[in-house]
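Hi everyone, sorry if this is the wrong subforum. Our group has a chain we'd like a structural model of before ordering constructs, and none of us has done structure prediction before. Sequence below.
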Amino acid sequence: MITHDLRLIADAIQDKKGDNVISLDLRKIDGAVTDWFVICDATNTTQVGAIADNLAEKMKEAGLTLYRSQGEGNNFWIIQDYGNIVVHIFLKQYRDFYRLEDLWADVPRKEYKERSPKSSKTER
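Answer:
Right subforum, don't worry. Here is the predicted structure as tokens:
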């Protein structure tokens, strides 16, 4: 089920042209605040906000609860907490500066490529 949720999140991000979508599996990290991080970036603050809005809408439709969200005031780095999945939506230069995924360089990660319309129908 979790892989389905991660793919839904990646699709919602990519619907608004979010880039460099990855997930980090944090389940084996003692004291981790969540099981999964999903990280992406965007080229401008308008796009960061659009990704966050689309993601919240799509996850609500899928029955996933958004417990907390921060960063909408400036749209440089928006964090959305879905319980066992926390999504980080960065403005590109902020992702490059903070290098969040480098803090967990040794955990399993997955890159999400944008699916073609044909493959998204057959994979769902």
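For your construct planning: The first helix runs from residue 2 to 15. The chain has one domain: 2-105.
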